[in-house]
Amino acid sequence: MPASRIRVMIVDDHEVVRAGVEALLAPDAGIVVVAQAASGAHALRLFRQHQPDVTLLDLTMPEMDGVATLRAIREEFPDGR
Known about the structure:
Layout: E1 6-11, H1 15-25, E2 31-37, H2 40-50, E3 54-57, H3 66-76
Parallel strand pairs: 1-2, 1-3
Helix pairs in contact: 2-3
């Protein structure tokens, strides 16, 4: 196992998509999924808590879409990805 793994957060309003992405990433020992969110607002809270290295973000979500979520994350965490 690598000494430093890439910490990933998955954001999508469809549970099956989140599960599928996690299943695709799971075999890679260099990646760990640290959080999953079903909404932009939840993603922002989880980003604050986990500060992942990479966020995989759905652009089309109800209420707070991916673009608004990304703006909020970048405003608070300018180096966030």
